[in-house]
Design brief:
Length: 385
């Protein structure tokens, strides 16, 4: 007789992305040529010098041993150096930095340290599902949707949010909308959190994936880390999604809580990957992106421009985002129905409803296909729309 799921697990909605993946597999088994704009996974390779450094570090037997769950000292120091070079912010590598097994792990485990059953967690909607599910529902907390609307440029209006929540999660450059936020906006949001005794959890995973001269800020520039924690990752910056390596920086009390949870759950990211983190972040010598990152951004920007131009020709109203490699597009009708229609044409898009109720009526497309495939997809769309 199978055991019953825990109540908290039963509260989770169906994971839409897994359902889409299964539908895609069915189409592939049927022999359909699939052009996948669904998952936000870079198709470009990890820069060769970083791969070579990983190989070199992997050959060192010392790096085969248990790491620290909080992160190796040299990795935490590298993060602190990066914050100084990139944002001109001083952080204490011992008290204000934790190394993560990818930022998603950190976002979920951080909530375990501070969120109690029944407390409210403010989650952007549409938003990355981990905020509402991994960091709220699985903590037996109550996810409260913070709407992101086009007329507000997809910026959460913090002034109308309930002031009795324990935590607010924000993410700019934003997944899924591609929206960006100014220092002034983030400073205001941080002050609102401080005034309402709300933890400010800021996901800055796309800080380096920006275009047209836009430079993304850090929340650490806006409030000196008081009551805030910021999560970052090498996944998008260096095309390292599969390596699972990231870091958190912020208020020492919040960082210590995260570290305490991690001591009970994991043994830290592998040492050889933490050495690679040191190598990658030290490629920055100033606020300017290193050449390998610039090269990646140039590819995504060209793809973005081709996709936006093509979609406009098909009659869609869409703007070129200043951040992330996502296009967030308004459609007519239910997003699931549109996604099904595209899948029947061999094109995978993500229905906006998968990111929350305020995502309905939109779809997300990731620019993770070569231009040739993008042009093929646009031709297919032209035939079926």
């Amino acid at each position: 007789m199978p055991f019953d799921y825990a109540t908290r697990l039963k509260k989770l909605p169906p994971y839409l992305f897994a359902e889409i993946e299964e539908k895609v597999k069915v189409k592939q088994r049927e022999g359909v040529d699939i052009i996948d704009f669904g998952i936000g996974d870079p198709d470009l390779p990890t820069p060769a010098p970083i791969v070579e450094e990983i190989k070199r570090q992997l050959m060192n037997p010392e790096n085969h041993r248990y790491p620290s769950s909080a992160g190796e000292c040299d990795a935490r120091e590298a993060v602190a150096r990066w914050y100084k070079k990139r944002f001109d912010v001083d952080v204490d590598p011992n008290g204000q930095v934790a190394i993560l097994i990818g930022s998603k792990e950190g976002l979920a485990n951080f909530a375990r340290a501070f969120i109690n059953p029944g407390e409210k967690v403010l989650c952007p909607d549409p938003g990355y599902p981990v905020y509402a599910q991994g960091a709220a529902t699985l903590c037996d907390a109550v996810p409260v949707r913070a709407p992101m609307r086009a007329e507000k440029k997809f910026l959460v209006d913090v002034d109308v949010l309930p002031s009795d929540a324990k935590m607010l999660s924000l993410n700019y450059p934003n997944n899924p909308t591609g929206a960006v936020a100014s220092k002034e906006y983030l400073t205001h949001a941080a002050h609102w959190c401080q005034e309402t005794d709300t933890i400010f959890c800021y996901d800055n995973a796309y800080s380096e994936m920006t275009f047209d001269g836009y430079v993304a800020p850090s929340i650490m520039e806006c409030c000196q880390g008081n009551g805030v924690i910021e999560f970052c990752s090498l996944s998008k910056t260096f095309n390292m999604t599969g390596y699972r390596i990231g870091y958190a920086v912020g208020d020492s009390n919040l960082i210590q809580g995260l570290k305490k949870v991690k001591t009970q759950i994991d043994s830290g990211a592998p040492k050889f990957l933490q050495k690679a983190l040191v190598y990658a972040l030290d490629m920055y010598t100033s606020p300017e992106k290193p050449q390998c990152v610039k090269d990646n951004i140039a590819v995504y920007q060209k793809r973005r421009d081709v996709m936006v131009t093509g979609l406009k020709r098909l009659g869609f109203k869409i703007d070129a985002p200043l951040g992330t490699f996502y296009l967030w597009m308004k459609i007519d009708g239910p997003s699931m129905k549109f996604a099904e229609k595209m899948l029947n044409a061999g094109i995978v898009v993500t229905p906006g409803v998968g990111f929350g109720e305020h995502g309905e009526g939109y779809i997300r497309m990731a620019t993770t296909q070569p231009i040739e495939r993008i042009e093929q997809a646009l031709e297919r769309m032209k035939k079926v729309l």
